[in-house]
Design a protein that fits this description.
Chain lengths: ~220, ~220
Amino acid sequence: MSKNSISNSVIRRLPRYYRFLGELENNGYVRISSRELSEKMGLTASQIRQDFNCFGEFGQQGYGYNVSDLRAEIGHILGLDEHTPMILLGAGNLGKAIASHIDFQSKGFDLIGAFDTNADIIGKEIGDLTVRDIDELEQFCRENKPVAAILCVPTGAAEKMADLLIGLGIKAFWNFTHYDMRAGRHGIAVENVHLGDSLTTLSYGLNSMEHGEEE
Amino acid sequence: MSKNSISNSVIRRLPRYYRFLGELENNGYVRISSRELSEKMGLTASQIRQDFNCFGEFGQQGYGYNVSDLRAEIGHILGLDEHTPMILLGAGNLGKAIASHIDFQSKGFDLIGAFDTNADIIGKEIGDLTVRDIDELEQFCRENKPVAAILCVPTGAAEKMADLLIGLGIKAFWNFTHYDMRAGRHGIAVENVHLGDSLTTLSYGLNSMEHGEEE
DNA sequence: TAGATTGTTAATCGATTAACAATC
DNA sequence: TAGATTGTTAATCGATTAACAATC
């Protein structure tokens, strides 16, 4: 599909390009040059042109890029015009917060089910979903064919749950547990969030700063 | 303090080393070689030795690394033996979930306050904290001198809130809003989480997989 | 001592930046 | 046409991997 497989560094920047282009569009920008965008985003113009060229020629010499065309194109590359059915596993504090905080539609997903093992949680509402007993998972998957899953179960249960879900046809994991899922194996897409590692990194940043290593 | 300033790529791997070493320690490992660790973590042995050498010589030729010494050392480098006072701004769904889900102590932080503007939320309990009115923020900061902040406010309020907090002495931000805080300016440490970007990346991963680009 | 494994230097690889011809 | 800005090639920089002498 794409010219050559796009490097991971580029992919990691795409969502941010998409967000910035959305803001520009909202602010009435019709065109933008790589230079102007580079200043707004804190990148080099060179890098931006290299990045955009990975997936075709969207600019026009002497003019720049059309903001809304470019945004739509990146959105398409990211798969944001899909409606991939997704389920939530583990509807505790974190699972519930994520399910209600995230705009799934605009990210190419559709949250169609939520599951838990805890009797206190089963039956509760999250947005327009009712939390189901995990015993219903298999049947639900047969009937509704979800393709993606959010893992908010306790870390200890994560590996088994992931294997079960793969068996039920899940192809993408948004993993909030501490279990390090290896991406890519068996054609499974994985995004590990690891909030703990993120806070740990902040600790390093703060402390190294205090010891004089400005960045 | 450290030999030479450690590269960002290395820093991003440190929390993961720390976690794996903790698990090894729990499983009774006393020593481990770079080769053995590389297999468990999916890295090269070379990279591991290079990484550990950034901050001194912890191994012993012919033996390997002492698991608990190495773990303690990395923990120290990460600042995990600190107790940096931290506050939460925005105690809605997400803020509440993060505050109750994360083990702050083990990450070098101490959550000492939570604030919101919403009258329905103010006064509610989160763990052993009571959510305060944001009007009390200034006085609270004068009295308790928090150094780090979790930003879970609406994106629109983020920039102003960040500036206010910097004025009140905050030096580190764990930012969950969509406002792109530029790290490093004015000696401020920033960790942007961007859950939306994370889910967007998963969408790309899933769709590129379906179009045949196994990774 | 012999074997194992580090610390470290050198080689490779990939990503970023610079430069510029192509062209709108 | 002249000016602007891309697409793309070449140069630089940094990170990863390989190799091996040092040494426990």
